[in-house]
Amino acid sequence: MPILHSIIHRLDKPDGETPARLVPSREALPPSGALDDLLAGLNDAYHGKTKTWGRFGEDADAAFPEALARYLDDALDFATLTRELAERLVPLVDDHLPLGGHLLMVDHRQGEARYLILALLHHRQGFGIGDDLSVVPSRQLNLAQMPLAARLDIGQWQGGSPSHPYLSWTRDRGGKKLAEAFAEVLGAREQVDAPQETRTLLKAFSDYVEAEDLPEEASREKTETLIDYASDQASRGEPITLEELSELVDEQQPRAFYEHIRNSDYGLAPEIPPDKRTLNQFKRFTGRAGGVSISFDSHLLGAAVEYDADQDRLIIKKVPRALRDQLTGGRD
């Protein structure tokens, strides 16, 4: 994960009464193993955050995309680019956060891709062991607390992909106004709702499995394939590519799932951002007793399937076609 440029500015606000102020760094950080490890930890922590996905707005009256383009054209140095952004973040800290923090910005490569990641980091008080084996206080960066953070896929932005949501930024629970103000500073426009898009994809997959009338074992294998792929993409901060997913789900018919999505009214783009929390909640309920075997996706509970706890009954509202044909002897 080669680091091209990195820097830390301080947005100083010691308490809720003191106005925030910028304490800028004049030059980029030198390379170090500690910085590499921090970037790896930052990426991991960021991928686990609730995020909004989108792109730079074409009509946005924001200075950051223009300044970023100048930086990439070598017309602006990294220290100036980041300092100007930090200056525009000071009012956000004043209006929405009780404390300031350190703004870390890193321009780096990951494989063939190039990313810019930024995060406002806070410290937490911890403990360490001194040379004399005594307990000593130790301040540490708290990567779990990240009120302002964003990640840009520079290559996708420069390539002008019409569907790829190449920009994401944090949206902490209860921090809607802060997220909106942050997006305005970045010049960003929300493109997709990641949790909703992920739920729609899982619904499309469940419909596909039902339509294909797959055996339970095959259904389970395909479900695991989808979750493994989507979770891996989420961990790397990459979108789910529907064609690539379709090839993984069914190697014998690599376009079957993709065509199922395209031919139905799901409204999914060719690439969608995965939401890790939604993926973690997706599972199948399975049970077997007395010659009866039942299995269904968790999101169907309360919709196509109902459980009456008082009577201990499972009510199936939509009987699979193949089962219905067996029950009716093929009669309509």
What can be said about the biggest beta sheet?
9 strands, antiparallel
Taken together, the total number of domains comes to 2
The end-to-end distance, rounded to whole angstroms, is 61 Å
Helical amount among residues, as a percent range? 25-40%
For the CA atoms, what is the radius of gyration?
A: 24 Å
Nearest-integer average pLDDT:
86
Give me the strand/helix succession.
EEHEHHEEEEHEHEHHEHHEHEEEEH
What is the tally of beta strands?
15
Which descriptor suits the 3D outline?
A: elongated
Folded structure, characterized:
It is found in: Cytoplasm, Nucleoid. InterPro entries: Nucleoid_associated_NdpA. It holds the Pfam family NA37. The chain is α+β, with helices and mostly antiparallel strands. The protein folds into two domains: about 5-190, no CATH class; about 195-330, no CATH class. The chain has helices at about 35-45, 65-70, 80-95, 155-160, 175-185, 195-210, 215-235, 240-250, 255-260, 275-280, 320-330; strands at about 5-10, 20-25, 50-55, 100-110, 115-130, 135-140, 150-155, 165-170, 190, 240, 270, 285-290, 290-295, 305-310, 315. The strands form four sheets. Strands 1, 2, 3, 4, 5, 6, 7, 8 and 9 form a nine-stranded antiparallel sheet that branches. Helix 2 (about 65-70) packs antiparallel against helix 3 (about 80-95) and helix 3 packs antiparallel against helix 5 (about 175-185). The protein is elongated and about 80 Å long. The relative contact order is 0.11. The mean pLDDT is about 85.
